[in-house]
Design goal:
This is HNH endonuclease. With 98 residues, the chain is α+β, with helices and mostly antiparallel strands. The chain has one domain. The chain contains 4 helices and 2 strands. The protein has a two-stranded antiparallel ribbon with strand order 1-2. Helix 1 packs antiparallel against helix 4. The protein starts with 18 loop residues before the first strand and ends in a 19-residue tail after the last helix.
Length: 98
């Protein structure tokens, strides 16, 4: 069976790569039980380091919308040049959200 594909940037998620489910509408904003997508953990972490729960629920509740965000678009370009199992720390809560 082939590896699942990260819908954010279209590359395989190998079994050894950290991965997690992303609720397209945050659970705290009514998305509990709603649609989820399997992402590389680095992609999932970058989404939550970049956008607030409100922004995710209001404007970025589809994969296409996430890809269109300027910062996430640059991130996708950067991470797509790394091996599929690549992982590094994300700036996280210390980064100013835009």
């Amino acid at each position: 069976m082939p590896d699942p594909i990260c819908p954010l940037y279209g590359r395989p998620i190998p079994p050894e790569a950290p991965q997690s489910l992303h609720h397209l509408i945050p659970k705290l904003k009514g998305g509990k039980g709603g649609p989820v997508v399997l992402l590389h953990q680095i992609c999932h972490s970058e989404i939550h380091a970049t956008l607030t729960e409100g922004e995710l629920a209001r404007d970025y509740h589809t994969v296409e919308a996430l890809r269109s965000h300027p910062h996430l678009g640059r991130f996708i370009g950067w991470v797509s040049k790394r091996p599929p199992a690549f992982h590094s720390r994300t700036a996280g809560k210390g980064r100013r959200k835009r």
